[in-house]
């Protein structure tokens, strides 16, 4: 697969992932662009791995987590912005829900990423662990803590119904 083919096939999906973890469409575009730029630099190696999208998705998630560690990053997602050109699906309805965004904004960046990869990207614990470079048991523990935090935030009924 050539780089241009990959971008055509998966570019919008990367922007949607960036939007879902960051809550900001401009930041999502930046994350996708950075991930694609880094993948392009070593595309010969990337295209030969088993799953190039997994590799690029990991770059995007790592960039987001690095971004949140910087002082200039604002943690509050701005869910009112709807990504243009996004393919509508049930996950978009969940992601655009105002109460869910506010609850997700209370989580740490890593907790938010774990929940997004699990419920929005529908990835299993092993794949999430590979993306984040941690153990599957850490993924489960992080998800458990994040869901417990969401339950404590008094949004339990509406959020739990959407996440289950």
UniProtKB/TrEMBL annotation:
Query: Which terms are listed as keywords in the entry?
Result: DNA-binding, Sigma factor, Transcription, Transcription regulation
Q: Which residues form the RNA polymerase sigma-70 region domain?
A: 11-72
Taxonomy, superkingdom = Bacteria
Q: Mind telling me which NCBIfam families this protein's record contains?
A: SigE-fam_strep, sigma70-ECF
GO molecular function annotations of the record: DNA binding; sigma factor activity
- Output the CDD domains linked to this UniProt entry: Sigma70_r4
What species is given as this protein's source? Kribbella jiaozuonensis
Q: Which Pfam families match?
A: Sigma70_r2 (PF04542), Sigma70_r4_2 (PF08281)
Example of a GO biological process term: DNA-templated transcription initiation
| Protein name in UniProt | SigE family RNA polymerase sigma factor
Query: Hey, which family's this protein in?
Result: Belongs to the sigma-70 factor family. ECF subfamily.
UniProt xrefs under InterPro entries: RNA_pol_sigma-70-like (IPR039425), RNA_pol_sigma-70_dom (IPR014284), RNA_pol_sigma-E_actinobac (IPR014325), RNA_pol_sigma70_r2 (IPR007627), RNA_pol_sigma70_r4_t2 (IPR013249), RNA_pol_sigma_r2 (IPR013325), RNA_pol_sigma_r3/r4-like (IPR013324), WH-like_DNA-bd_sf (IPR036388)
Task: Decide whether keyword DNA-binding is in the record.
Answer: yes
Q: Where would I find the RNA polymerase sigma factor 70 region 4 type domain in this sequence?
A: 98-150
| PANTHER family attached to this UniProt entry | ECF RNA POLYMERASE SIGMA FACTOR SIGM, RNA POLYMERASE ECF-TYPE SIGMA FACTO
């Amino acid at each position: 697969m050539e780089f241009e083919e990959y971008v055509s096939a998966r570019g919008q999906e990367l922007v949607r992932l960036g939007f879902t973890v960051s809550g900001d469409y401009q930041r999502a575009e930046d994350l996708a662009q950075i991930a694609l730029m880094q993948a392009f630099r070593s595309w010969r190696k990337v295209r030969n791995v088993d799953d190039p999208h997994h590799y690029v998705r990991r770059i995007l998630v790592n960039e987001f987590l690095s971004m949140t560690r910087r002082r200039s990053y604002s943690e509050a997602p701005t869910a009112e912005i709807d990504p243009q050109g996004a393919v509508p699906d049930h996950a978009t309805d969940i992601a655009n829900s105002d109460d869910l965004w506010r609850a997700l904004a209370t989580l740490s960046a890593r907790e938010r990423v774990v929940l997004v990869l699990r419920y929005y990207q529908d990835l299993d614990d092993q794949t999430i662990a590979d993306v984040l470079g941690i153990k599957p048991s850490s993924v489960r523990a992080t998800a458990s803590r994040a869901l417990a935090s969401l339950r404590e935030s008094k949004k339990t009924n509406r959020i739990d119904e959407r996440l289950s």
